[in-house]
Amino acid sequence: MQYDDASRRNERRRFLQAGLLSASAVIARPSRASEPKGERFRFQQVHMGAPWELVLYAASEKAANSAANAAFARIAALDACLSDYQADSELSRLNMTAGTGKAIAVSDDLWRIVTAAHDLSTATDGAFDITVGPLVRLWRRARRYKELPRPEWLAEARAAVGYRLLKLDRTQQTIELTRPDMRLDPGGIAMGYAADEALQVLKQYGVTRAMVDASGDVVCGDAPPDRPGWIVGIAVTGGKGGKPTRYVSLANAALTTSGDTYQFVEVNGVRYSHIVDPRTGVGLTNRATVSIVGPDGITADSVATAASVLGPDRGAKYIESRANLAGHFMWTSDDRIETRETTRLRSYITNG
């Protein structure tokens, strides 16, 4: 799963053509008269191939612009580090060392992504796996040509996938990709991490009341003035652009969603998601949407993908076992929409 894939680039073009986003300039838009604890501003840019939005409260337009510009600059820097589309990114350079026997010292950002992914892989028995890149590449081709990957291609790709094939030296902060053709894919974790980092930058500029929306991965800081939290809708399964029926109130927490509403391929009457089960090498076919509330974006983002692979039963069990997580599952069964919510989600639900 990539954060910078064709569908998101198409979405970016639609936004740019409509004149709704600018990737080169930040424009502050006060949305109401000054409030006792700051004025509300909204900013939009395109990064990582997708639309990003910052909503924040600041003492002045100048302060808001400075904070937002710094936050977007941090997102752009992370894209340059973590993109697997840019040949000169740090991640791409690391991928090029696969199978060479070299342990590569990496930056703090890449280290945090890979170690967090590896820890979740261990906890979920490989349901989340950052080494899934060779398989993702095959399924991206499948979506393009509307045909399933050949069995021999899947077998070859699967031989290069497996979080146990990563060698991590936590003392030296080095990573070794032990098999030829291994490829790390930061999809399902990078955007959540970037949203966390953007929020941290805003805080460094004195902006604590803020929400970062990374194309649906939402990370919230302190609540808006006179509200207990930021109101965020839970995405629905099925129709594109469907209106949420459940809302959560978040403060210093994140909500991310994983699903196949926009990215899938249908072959011989079977719909295969862009989300690939790293253990089987096959795109998911369960037509599900999983939304996770977590303490930060990197956690919620990656757990949403893992829970999608685990499915409603095992996914909900995993989430219930973690004191800082809550989840909402929605899937189709015999042409019916079914849902499941974990116990802790109830504490976040609001009517708006």
Brief digest:
The protein is of the alpha+beta class and 352 residues long. The protein is built from 8 helices and 16 strands. Strand 1 and strand 2 form a beta hairpin.
Describe the overall structure.
The structure is a single chain. The strands form four sheets. This protein has an eight-stranded antiparallel beta sheet. It folds into three domains: 1-84 and 187-222, no CATH class; 86-177, ApbE-like superfamily (T-fold), CATH 1.10.3980; 228-352, ApbE-like domains (T-fold). 33% of the residues lie in helices and 24% in strands. The two termini are 32 Å apart. The protein is of the alpha+beta class.
Query: What Rg is obtained from the alpha carbons, in whole angstroms?
Result: 20 Å
Strand order of the largest sheet: 1-2-6-7-10-13-14-15
Overall residue-averaged pLDDT value: 87
Low-confidence stretches: 1-36
Q: Report the sheet-strand fraction.
A: 15-25%
CATH architecture identity of the largest domain: Roll
Q: What can be said about the biggest beta sheet?
A: 8 strands, antiparallel
Would you list the SSEs in sequence order as H and E? HEEHHEHHHEEHEEEEEEEEHEEE
